[in-house]
Amino acid sequence: MPGTETERWHGAALDFSARMSYGDYLALDRILDAQHLRSSDPNELLFIVQHQTSELWMKLMLAELHGARRSVAEDQLPPAFKMLTRVSRIMDQLVQAWSVLATMTPAEYSAIRPHLGMSSGFQSWQYREIEFVLGNKNPALLQPHAHRAEALRSVTLALEAPSIYDEAIRLLARRGFAIDPERLANTAPSAARPDASVEAAWLQVYRDPERHWALYELAEKLVDIEDAFRQWRFRHVTTVERVIGFKRGTGGTEGVSYLRRMLDVVLFPELWHLRTSL
Predict the structure, then answer these.
(1) Phi and psi at residue 217, in whole multiples of 5°?
(2) Which residue has the higher pLDDT, 187 or 194?
């Protein structure tokens, strides 16, 4: 038929004047126009793309974490397992992303650093929400988001809501394990401290996994996430040290020294400590 070659190529449609295309669906015009360099150094594009893509992965991670938390609260564990596995794989992507940024030399970063002002990954409200959902909560860290009402609302909700680990502990109680009532009621930052009743419950699960297989699998999914999260944080601190050494961070933190202290944060302490007792 006349015009066929201009409309199709090996079965693929070519004319999108009246149909939605790939770029339309993904809003690529807006995404690809969101890299606004503030310096004349071409290496700034790497720095921006690295952080923008990380934020996109974190957006997906938050959706999966919120969904998994709801599923655990509703005793729907198979969907939670799927979502928690996806979270771990997203973190794998974020770990590998640091390898790209690590190609930036100290001299290249020094050329763009004056143009960053006080902007810093420390101010990422999505990262902060991820930490709060996982249980590493600190009310003081709401302040960097006070100037953005929607971001502040999101991180505040995450701070005040039970973490995914809180919901896992509540599930243990619903399944008949003896959990200290104070720990069940506590979703504050101090809840990250180890609790003897929680460890005793998880120990029962690990000593008889066939009897408690769903809880056993949930525990291992949580350990997978913390394992991946530790690798993500470790790759972060290593990349920062490689690029800026021990200079202070642009946001005012101590840089590498601060990031190294964060490596000691344990999200699910009982799940790690019980391994010594098995």
Answers:
(1) -65, -40
(2) 194
| pTM of the shown model | 0.92
Tokens coding 274: 């019980």
Helix (H, G, I), strand (E, B) or coil at 210: coil
Give strand ranges (E) for the chain: 8-9, 12-13
At which residue do the structure tokens 């143009």 appear?
Answer: 115
**Complete DSSP assignment for 166-206:** HHHHHHHHHTT----HHHHH--SGGGGS--HHHHHHHHHHH
| CA angle at 128 for the pair 126 and 131, rounded to the nearest 5° | 110
The whole-angstrom separation of Cα 1 and Cα 196 is: 77
Q: How confident is the model at residue 193 (pLDDT cuts 50, 70, 90)?
A: confident
Largest CA distance in the chain: 78
Query: Residue 13, SS3?
Result: strand
Residue 220: half-sphere exposure toward Cβ, Cα within 13 Å: 10
Dihedral pair phi/psi, residue 161, rounded to 5°: -85, 160
